[in-house]
Each structure stands twice: as structure tokens, then as C-alpha cells.
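Request:
Um, any thoughts?
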Amino acid sequence: MLQKTFELQASAPENGILQLELGKNHITLTTFSADNIASGQLEHFNFKEQDKKDYGTLLQQLKTDSTILLSAGSHQKVILCWETDLVQPIPDPLFKPGHLADYFRYYKESIDKDPADFEHLTDAGAGYQFVYSVPKELFDLIQKDFARASHRHKQAAIARQLGGFTDNYPLKALLIFYQDHYILTTFASERLQLIISRPFNHGADVVYQLLSAIKEAGYHTDQCCVYLSGLIDGDSALFKEIYKFVPVIDVDKMEHMQSLSAHPDYPSHFFVPFYKYVR
């Protein structure tokens, strides 16, 4: 069963762009104007693991409960961004486009899964081809409603934005938080060093991975600027745990954030990942 966790309300853009992010336990809808300005419309839904057994019911409820879909006119473009674990970045020189299904065995999570049950896709970013696999049943259902949609992967979308961070630190780290997991990206001179998605129960889980990634890249913590994005609050125990070990912290930002800054309950960086790292 879908549950709407939070939303931003605004007028639907005329002939705009609809974006849907499809995660392991969430679906987020956002809209852009025709000239790529965030409209301030956002809906974030969560669902439980057992709900994935019936994708048809899940999507039907989305069409019933989503104000954005109910009020939407025509969109000039639809973007579907998959935020999933079955993904492998392959350096461009090593990528073999005719063998997408062959990469399936490299996924850590694919040991007990059949490649035939998945649709195998690819998305480019930062000199890599992000090969990823999504449940075929869900893919086919999505295609019925959004046949002309462009498909993206969250990690590739992040990789495409590495040039937008302008601090002077030699290493940068981006932490994007969801309710029960996070994506950690490290990069230097706009070159991707690491990108992983991990579950967490405590801030110590995040700190361990972050410090390990900084060390693996050959830097000290005072040489790395860590950007926080997504569902993390500055007063939370999670933030305080990170701040104990990392001296340089900033919040993630994007252009044209005015519409994201007016929410009375949530800071703007809560919404940034759902707009900035989709296309």
C-alpha cells in the first residue's frame, strides 16, 4: 500500500516535464516547466517490501492518489529514473553494448535471481556506462502508461552532475539520504572515484563507509568537502554523528531553488535529489 510521506504543492506547469523516480521502497513525482525550471510540485510515496509482489495494484493506487497525475495535462516529456541496487558502472572503453544481460551476474544482489525476469538497460555518465536491471513485470506495466518515457538510473544522473560542485577541496563526497538507505559518491577533479548504495540503521554505519571511501581515495578528512542531500535534518542524531568525524560539511544545492525553500516543515535540501539527480 502506498503512503504519501511528504509533498510540495504548486500549479502544474503548462506542457512541462514529468519526472518519476522509482526506488526500492518509494516513488517520487516532480514536475519541471518547459524551460527546465523546477515547478515546486513534488509527491513522495513509500511502500513496503511485500507490496512489490503486486506491481499492478501499486501503480493503480499511484494513479488514484497522486495529485500530480490526476491534475496533469499533457507533458512534452516524461523521465523515469530508477533508483535501484542492480547497477554496475562500466568504464566506456570496456563497455560491450550487445551484452547487457551478461553484466547481470556481476551484481552482488543477483545471486538468486534469473536474468530473464529483468529488463536490462544502460545510462551514461562521467565516462561510465551504468548497466542496470529492473523487474520486467514492473517495466512492462510502466511502459503501458508511459510508452515514450526516457529511462535513467539514479547513479548515472548523479555522475552527470559532478562538475557542479565548485569548492576548492581536492576530494568531494555526496551523501544522499532516503528513509532507510543512502547513496555515497566520491569524486576528485570531476572524476568519479566511488558510487554505492547502502542500507543503514545508525549514523555509525554511514560514517564508517564515508571514512573508508575518503581513505581509499588517498585523502584525509580535512581535504574532503562532504555534501549532504535528501532526508537528513541538521538537528538529527545522524547529522551529529557525521559531524563528529568530518570537519567540512555543506548542504547540496541546485539552480532555481526558490520554489523548494518555502516549505514550513522541511529544509530545501530534502527535495534537491528528486529534482537535481533524475535526468
Remarks:
- The mean pLDDT is 92.
- Residues 58 and 117 are 19 Å apart (CA to CA).
- The first strand starts at residue 3 and ends at 8.
- The chain has seven helices and 14 strands.
